[in-house]
Amino acid sequence: MTKRSDCPISNVLDHVGDKWSLLIIRDLMFFGKHSYSELQNSDEKMATNILSSRLEKLEKEGLIYKQKDKQDKRKKVYRLTEAGIDMLPIMLEMIVWSAKHAPETNIPNQLVSRVHTDRAGLIQELTEQLHQQP
């Protein structure tokens, strides 16, 4: 991938700089969605062509990988890579920002509270859970 600049924020945006990519990461990270149909059935109702292209992009960028489903070898499931899991602190900060600036959204208040009281412990716990996913 060609980078636009040496700016670290620009670098992240080159990888996940659109809303759909972040929503896919959100669903894999927080909602346990792993199949194409589960990801397609998110509240935002992503069009199939957008979902397909974003999954391909995230895989190419090294943030997710796909594998055959253990129960149904015809199906593919998507998982976060280590780089994808490392997006966890960014995602948590986005939730905290929304809690402060858009409180009318569907805020997981217990999660926000935990970020404020035990951020490191929460990140460690969630990271371990993501590593344990089959």
From TrEMBL:
This is Helix-turn-helix domain-containing protein. It comes from the Bacteria. Residues 7-106 form the HTH hxlR-type domain. The keyword DNA-binding applies. Gene3D superfamilies: Winged helix-like DNA-binding domain superfamily/Winged helix DNA-binding domain (1.10.10.10). Keywords: DNA-binding, Transcription, Transcription regulation. The keyword S-adenosyl-L-methionine does not apply.
